[in-house]
Structure formats: C-alpha cells, structure tokens
Amino acid sequence: MAELVVALDVSETRKLDELLEVLSGSPVWVKLGLEALSAFGYGAIGRAREKGFKVFADVKYHDIPNTVGSASRVVTRAGASMFNVHCSGGAAMCAAARKESEEEAAKLGMARPIVLGVTVLTSLGADDLGVMGFAGGAAETALKLASAGKSGGLDGVVCSVHEAASIKARLGENFLTLTPGIRPAGAGVQDQKRVATPAAAVKAGADFLVVGRPITGAPAPAAACRAILQEMTKS
Ligand code: C5P
C-alpha cells in the first residue's frame, strides 16, 4: 500500500506550524528538505514528530563515507524515519549511511530509518549528464546509480514515476521507490516537467508519493490531502 508524503517546503516558522497543525491527524508522512532544514535546523524533525508525523528528512548527503556516516547518525538521532543520500557518492558511502544509521538507532532503541538514494536529479538533461561523464541518458544512468545504491545496502531510491516500474523490475519488488512530480488531474504543474497523477504513481508500483504545492498551496490543505489519499486507495 503506497503512502503519501507531504513536502513542507517552507522557511517561515508560522507557515510550518500552520501546516503541521492543519495536517495533524492525516495518515501521511511529512518531508522536510533543504529549505526547511536550513531555516529551522534538525529541531524541526522533532517538532513534526511531536505532531504525530513520520518524517522523511530529504538531506541528500554526498560526501566521503566517514562524513556521511557521521551525519547519518545525527539525522537518525534527530528522529528521521527516512532520509536520503546521493547514489553517485558510491556504494561505500551508501553503505556507511546504512550501517551508521542502523547502529545509532539500535543504540537509541528505536527502529532504523529507511535510507534512500537519489539517482538522477530530474532537472538534469542528457547534455548535463554527458558533461558529468554519464553516457546513456537519464533512464540508464538512474538504473546504474540505483544498482550502486542497492549494493551499498540502500532500501530504495528517489525516482520519477516513469522510472519506478523498470527500477523494480531490475532491482526487485522490495526495493523501494519514492516518486515526486505528482499532480492530481487538473492541478497546476508549476516547475515540474514529468508529472504523473497519484493513480498512475500507485499503478507504477511507487511505495511513497511526494506531493508538495498541490496540498500546501491549496486553500484547504487538509481537504486536498484527503482527496489525494482517496485517489490512491481507489487505484
Ligand atoms: O511542490 P511539489 O509537489 O512540486 O514538490 C515536490 C518535492 O519533491 C519538492 O520538495 C522537491 O524538492 C522534491 N523533488 C522533486 N524532484 C526530484 C527530487 C525531489 O520534485 N527529482
């Protein structure tokens, strides 16, 4: 059963608290990414947990294994139930994230966080990838990076709905996929390019659907959230 993750891309305390309040009680995760974590620090993870949410910390770590391993301990201690690293940091870096978050969680007597890998940022085109030395385009590069992540022990990857089925076919049904770029039929796409509806994402086998502005920018965010959850369960 796919789960909904609401992206709280805000940097004003008032806005964060408002969204946590209005969404509290909804069976959703929240995602705190670079904007929110830069503005509020990792304390925001605890604030969201206090309101009853599981938190996906979209930290996108990318550094040497030792540094990423230590940071993974910090984000685990802060209370993230899921966080991510860039697969392009290599299998050893991914393994450090997995191992050290697991050790830290065991020390604290809590469940270990899910660790995901970012494959190819959806803002990168084939030309950008070529300059970086990735021949073969986005889909093939995403699969290669996802394989590197899997061999480092990651639980899954962040990818577009359009790649979710092929990643699962290659790396196994249990390898998780988290898909942003979700837009209910008729909603504005804003800056997203390759969008899919919640129903299409569920059909493609995505485990987590990330939705931001169609909920956070709606006149009634809780109602918008309910409508998406309904579409997901009907699919
Ligand atoms: O508002 P919207 O639904 O477009 O938000 C999508 C969220 O998913 C944002 O937080 C964005 O940073 C994130 N994301 C994305 N595309 C990726 C990776 C992350 O849209 N490839």
Summarize the structure.
With 235 residues, the protein is of the alpha/beta class.
Walk me through this protein's architecture:
This protein has helices spanning 13-23, 34-40, 43-50, 65-77, 91-108, 126-131, 137-151, 161-171, 198-203, 213-216, 221-234; strands at residues 3-7, 29-32, 55-61, 82-86, 114-118, 156-158, 176-179, 208-211. Helix content is 48%, strand content 16%. Helix 7 crosses helix 8. The mean pLDDT is 95. It has eleven helices and eight strands. With 235 residues, the chain is an alpha/beta fold. The protein has a single domain (3-232), classed as Alpha-Beta Barrel (TIM Barrel). Cytidine-5'-monophosphate (C5P) is lined by residues 7, 9, 33, 121-122, 158, 180-181, 190, 192, 210-213.
